[in-house]
Amino acid sequence: MGEIMNEFVQVLTIAGSDSDGSAGAQADLKTFMARGVYGMSVLTAAVAGNSYGIHDSINMPSSFINSQVKDIKDDFEVSAFKTGMLSDSEIIHTVAEAIKDKPFGTFVLDPVIITKHGAMLLEADAYQTLIDELFPLADLITPNFYEAQKLSGIELKTQEDIVEAAHKLRDLGPKNIMIKGEHADDSIDYVEDYILLEDGNSFWISEPYVKTDHINGTGDTLSSCIVAEVAKGATLEDAIRTAKTFTYHAIKNEIDVGHKYGPINHFVKDDVK
Known about the structure:
alpha/beta, UDP-N-acetylmuramoyl-L-alanine:D-glutamate ligase, 22% strand, globular
């Protein structure tokens, strides 16, 4: 028998399954592997889809979600975790109850509310449940441009608007805020994100805008990379910076998978430390 390797850093995603592998828990697990951590998943839903779109979906029963969480708790030492797609109020409440004693360490919440193109994904009651029950538990939330507008009630036209929105979002309970920049407009040169930390420090990070249809799983990859880096011992600021760079390279270095809206490239290296 081979020698047993040192214990791996362990992380978790609580998210939906995407059958084409481009987003959701599949993108999270690919990111975890790329960043050198052992990833596990609690599935909240499953969608049938491909690069043309999503064509069917089903939610997991709350009892099954709880069973998955219990089995992870009973056996593994999870250092950090994230949530992704939580389809309705019942699932959000189930997850909130399961994690309220913080059994899995640092919590990164990717609020899957509105697509990067502005389409609403959650019904009104589920949207409010997410804010009321999960936001206060989150160490970091990573809303996209449209989600930040919706959550803050501020139309984001200037950098000053984004700064104000971040402070409003922190008033909802999360300790740290990362507002991802708009990237649905081919006229822009850079995608700029704003980060407001718990200690009051803040900063902007940016990478060049890449014109491509291969952007499925971008938000999942960013948030799961942050989880991986924090679990390995990075500060939250360093984890965010690494995740921004890794995600940019994964978008820039396209892979030819699917016939329309393809996945980003989790195989990328590009000396991302």
